[in-house]
Write a structure and sequence with these properties.
By secondary structure, the chain is an alpha/beta fold. The chain folds into two domains: about 190 residues, Isopropylmalate Dehydrogenase (3-Layer(aba) Sandwich); about 140 residues, Isopropylmalate Dehydrogenase, CATH 3.40.718.10. About 40% of the residues lie in helices and about 15% in strands. It has 13 helices and twelve strands. Helix 1 packs across helix 3 and helix 4 packs across helix 6.
């Protein structure tokens, strides 16, 4: 089986993305899989921050020694580690779109994205709520955000919404769509033959029979009953405060959480180095780091590359699983 071809998006130039890519460049086996979409100048600065050098080679070349990295260059207007300059928003978004389009065109088998800065991109004139949403629009697909580590997977019905908007976004259609996409992805991308999904309630104690809210009774339970009739193994709705107990995790393959901060704090509490962000429902695998731009430590050479390297390994694994499916 041929090695997967991965497009890697540098992300926010002022953040730690360049240092993470610099670590990648020193790992020849991984670097040979990857082509970075971002500023060559920023990449070289990131390498200097960790006491290394990067040779940015042509996107068609093959790295043959540590320190070489294929790069599609997107020059930035200005650069300072620790500062997210809105003037760079166009370069950042152009690089992201180019990498997505290259995957759609079949030039790459998977996409790995570094962290972006939402506020800076907004200030630069772009309507950006997250890369997951950009992927959904660019690819014309319904998608689901799932964060995963070795012992836990959490998919989200809603993603980057203000908390006051969440209940209105929990509809029968949005919930059923999330469950269907997650169920299919576990079969097709994770080789899980008969997925078991734990579905969280929206309200405390999963609504307490309507005393603490009726979303479970009016929306969640009817959807689960309908999908169970199709043969899906669905557990819930479960109270979120006890659903993640270690004694219960062995009974399901993934959790469906209703909103961002309902499920992700539990997953991330195991350590940011252990988790990755996976977008389900795309025509190609996309995996991202499970942390932000870390502007406060950018350029200091102390950023840990573990989540980034794990994202590359996970994306390569998903490519292999996808291409090995009949």
């Amino acid at each position: 089986m041929s090695s997967p071809r991965l497009a890697v998006v540098l992300g926010e130039p002022g953040g730690i993305g360049a240092e993470l890519c610099a670590h990648l460049s020193q790992d020849l086996a991984r670097a040979q899989l990857c082509t970075v979409f971002g500023s060559a100048e920023v990449l070289r600065a990131g390498a200097a921050a960790i006491g290394k050098t990067i040779e940015c080679i042509d996107a068609e070349a093959v790295p043959h020694e540590a320190g070489q990295l294929r790069v599609v260059d997107f020059p930035v207007s200005t650069h300072t580690f620790g500062t997210a300059h809105p003037a760079n928003a166009a370069a950042v978004m152009t690089a992201l779109h180019a990498a997505i389009d290259a995957c759609l065109a079949g030039k790459f088998d998977g996409l790995v994205t570094g962290p972006l800065n939402k506020a800076s991109i907004h200030a630069g004139g772009f309507d950006y709520t997250g890369t997951t949403e950009v992927l959904a629009t660019r690819c014309g697909r319904d998608v689901v955000m799932m964060l995963a580590r070795d012992d836990l997977r959490v998919a989200l019905v809603t993603t980057h919404l203000p908390l006051r908007d969440v209940p209105d976004a929990i509809t029968a259609d949005s919930l059923a769509r999330t469950i269907r996409i997650t169920h299919a992805a576990l079969i097709e991308q994770f080789a899980c033959a008969a997925p078991r999904l734990a579905i969280l309630g929206l309200n405390p104690h999963a609504g307490e029979d309507g005393v603490l809210g009726r979303e479970e009774i009016d929306i969640i339970v009817p959807v689960l009953e309908s999908l169970r009739a199709e043969g899906m193994h669905l557990i819930g709705p479960l109270p979120a405060d006890t659903a993640f107990l270690p004694s219960k995790r062995a009974s399901f393959d993934a959790v469906i959480a209703m909103y961002h901060d309902q499920g992700l704090p539990v997953l991330k509490s195991g350590g940011l180095d252990e988790a990755v962000n996976i977008t389900l429902g795309l025509p190609f695998p996309r995996v991202a780091v499970d942390h932000g731009t870390a502007l406060d430590i950018a350029g200091l050479g102390i950023a840990r590359p573990h989540s980034f390297l794990r994202a590359i390994d996970q994306c390569a694994s998903l490519v292999h699983l996808r291409t090995s499916q009949p």
